[in-house]
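User: quick one, fold this
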Amino acid sequence: MNEELQKLQDKIVVLLRTVYDPEIPVNIYDLGLIYDVDIDDANNVTIEMTFTSPSCPAADFILMDIQMKIESIPEVNRVDINLTFDPPWDKSMMSEEALLELGFM
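Assistant:
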């Protein structure tokens, strides 16, 4: 990844760490809900992600928050979010910080 794309990737991760499920006091990135962030040559961003449950009541809110925040980055042309439940999320995908915050360590 070239330096410009790496800087854009870093900006995206910073913003993803500001997105929270209203019911969980940990951001979606550290929860392990983000599986992949791909940036193409035209600065179109594709985010592959999941939820802790397919029936997440805050799904629409979270998706809208991600969309608005990533689109606010001037270098980003377009944002596409792909939801997947394969592999299904489990707590092993959480960062150490998230595990500590939620009392799993």
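User: anything notable?
Assistant: The longest helix spans residues 3-16.
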